[in-house]
Amino acid sequence: MKVRRSDRLIDMTSYLLDHPRELISLPFFVRRYDSAKSSISEDLAIIKRTFNTRGLGRVQTLPGAAGGVQYLPGVSQSGATDFLGMMALKLAEKERLLPGGYLYLSDLLGNPTYLRMIGRLIAALYVDQQVDAVMTVATKGIPIAQSVATCLGVPFVIVRRDAKITEGATVSVNYVSASSSRIEKMELSKRSLPEGANVVIVDDFMKGGGTIHGMHDLLKEFEAELVGITVFAEATFAGQRVETEYTSLLNVVAVDTHASEIKVELGNYLDKLAAVTSDQA
């Protein structure tokens, strides 16, 4: 039974969004909608143009017998700027200040609308690279990792600070927390990562970078390759960060506990996105 173009466009768009970075053959859509290959190609051209105009990512077609169509998640520079500006204002709300100078992030990282956009922002940096998994440490980094992994169409793995019997055999490393100078331990199940996997590390907040450095060391135990590091927010750190190559969406420049003031600026994300977009062009 043939499907009308309007219905076809909606269903095809939904399918592409649900299968990011997956190469889908044109004959698959021909059979799915009982339509001519030329009609499917015209539909894909419409979707491609709309995605590009709206800053939703790229739809690219690959010619040949082994070719097909592929959706690569992305975001426009203006869309990223507007969203991060809004996030910076929310993060600077004085009600977020907790005892000890900590910031409350759970409402932001628990909002599914924000998380979807955060996932797209981070995924846009790595969409053209070989990524096999997204790694984070329990607990607040989990929703970010899940969102990024969904956009990239790969699994996410969780590093824990305490062993879980349900994880089976684990690999552990000791690391120094740069902010507290304490030696701590983190563990990852041996079944979580295949040897030689290409991994993106994400986290919610970074001060000295000790936790992220520990995850980096853990990757070496699995003989895995680090693709990149991205954090939702970084904070000004007086000492020497143990990880210097990273991307941050936001930068908490100053926290005044007496005046209950938080100064937040945009991180280096927009510069990294501009470089990636330039390479794509």
UniProtKB/TrEMBL annotation:
Gene3D superfamilies: 3.40.50.2020, Winged helix-like DNA-binding domain superfamily/Winged helix DNA-binding domain (1.10.10.10). The keyword Aminoacyl-tRNA synthetase does not apply. Keywords: DNA-binding, Transcription, Transcription regulation. SUPFAM superfamilies: PRTase-like (SSF53271), Winged helix' DNA-binding domain (SSF46785). Residues 108-244 form the Phosphoribosyltransferase domain. Residues 4-73 form the Bacterial purine repressor N-terminal domain. Homodimer. Belongs to the purine/pyrimidine phosphoribosyltransferase family. PurR subfamily. This is Pur operon repressor. It comes from Lapidilactobacillus achengensis. The gene is purR.
